[in-house]
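Tokens as discussed.
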């Protein structure tokens, strides 16, 4: 099944026309006494129910990335930025010596500390660079992960359904969440990309 990437969440994956419905009905054995509009409505309801069912059945442990790149609270911001850049990720958990998650650092945390307040946007930093002389990152060059991380960290357990994680992303306005065990130790991380890829792999 082909999916339209621009389709809004919860909608049909393809834009069906009446002629598509009529052709499909003709291929079915027997006689179906419904209109194309009725068929379309049934299809959309069925699709939405399938989306909801899959979102409730899949859990964090089913989609999480298990090899998580992390830093420690005393890691320099230079090291932190280098790790994020090398892995092409926009957020990284901060863990203590027991592998327990104590915070999370995102690109926005860097941007805010570099003068992008209050929005924390890249263009906010650009505007500061244009106004000032020198690199706006210089004031945080000697700082550590603990100095800019968001804490306490928002985390989820391995059994959290994807529907709950999606709701958490919306409520907290975050794009990733560490997955922890009963002792708070990191065992994985779930990003929006992980959820989308795993979800569509199940329904395609």
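Sequence:
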């Amino acid at each position: 099944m082909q999916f339209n990437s621009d389709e809004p969440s919860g909608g049909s994956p393809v834009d069906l026309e009446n002629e598509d419905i009529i052709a499909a009905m003709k291929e079915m054995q027997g006689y179906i006494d419904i209109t194309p509009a009725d068929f379309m409505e049934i299809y959309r309801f069925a699709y939405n129910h399938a989306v909801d069912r899959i979102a409730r059945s899949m859990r964090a442990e089913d989609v999480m990335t298990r090899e998580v790149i992390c830093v420690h609270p005393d890691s320099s911001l230079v090291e932190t930025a280098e790790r994020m850049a090398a892995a092409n990720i926009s957020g990284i958990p901060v863990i203590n010596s027991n592998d327990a998650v104590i915070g999370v650092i995102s690109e926005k945390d860097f941007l805010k500390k570099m003068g992008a307040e209050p929005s924390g946007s890249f263009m906010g930093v650009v505007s500061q660079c244009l106004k000032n002389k020198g690199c706006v990152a210089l004031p945080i060059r000697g700082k550590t992960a603990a100095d800019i991380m968001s804490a306490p960290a928002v985390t989820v357990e391995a059994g959290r359904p994807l529907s709950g994680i999606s709701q958490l992303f919306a409520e907290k306005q975050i794009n990733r969440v560490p997955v922890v065990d009963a002792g708070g130790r990191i065992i994985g991380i779930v990003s929006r990309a992980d959820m989308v890829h795993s979800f569509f792999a199940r329904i395609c």
